[in-house]
Amino acid sequence: MHFAVKRVYDTPDPDDGRRVLVDRLWPRGISKQRAHIDEWLKDVTPSTDLRRWFHADPQHRGAEFASRYRSELEDDAHRQGLEQLRELRASGPVTLVTAVKDLAHSHIPVLLAQFGEELP
């Protein structure tokens, strides 16, 4: 079973299954009711320092960001969050939900790669 990926601003769909927010910060301008989030796994997101570093120059820091994020995903907290995602996926459909505008140039492809997946 593969992960689906949606922006939090997209309309939720019954086929989404479990909707898991994979952003460190709550998305601006959206209520918890409207977001329809079942789980919020901050432990699978880039650290605050890494996120800030990347956002300072995303055009030139993409490859280095991916490398640093992969390293972070190896620590205990991140591994625990990844295991939670594995368990959720094993129990049915899971949609990873994020507020990022440019999915291809974000943490989402790196996160999906941990499961042998790519962006659809």
Quick take:
The chain has 120 residues and is an alpha/beta fold.
What's the SSE blueprint?
Elements: E1 3-7, E2 18-21, H1 32-35, E3 39-40, H2 48-56, H3 62-72, H4 76-90, E4 94-98, H5 108-113
Parallel strand pairs: 1-4, 2-3, 2-4
Characterise the protein shown here.
With 120 residues, the chain is α/β, with parallel strands linked by helices. It has one domain. The protein contains five helices and four strands; from the N terminus they run ββαβαααβα. The protein has helices at residues 32-35, 48-56, 62-72, 76-90, 108-113; strands spanning 3-7, 18-21, 39-40, 94-98. Strands 1-4-2-3 form a four-stranded parallel beta sheet, covered by helices on one side. α2 runs antiparallel to α3. It starts with a strand and ends in a 7-residue tail after the last helix. It comes from Nocardia macrotermitis. Pfam families: DUF488-N3i (PF22752). This is MarR family transcriptional regulator.
Estimate the mean pLDDT confidence. Answer: 95
Main beta-sheet strand count, sense and barrel state: 4 strands, parallel
Low-confidence stretches: none
Oligomer: single chain
Q: What would you call the structural class?
A: alpha/beta
Element-level helix/strand string: EEHEHHHEH
Quickly count the domains: 1
Q: Report the strand count.
A: 4
Give, in spatial order, the strands making up the sheet with the most strands. Answer: 1-4-2-3
Radius of gyration: 14 Å
Continuous helix count: 5
The shape, in one word, is globular
- Helicity range of the residues? 25-40%
Q: What is the straight-line distance between the termini?
A: 13 Å
Strand content bin: 5-15%
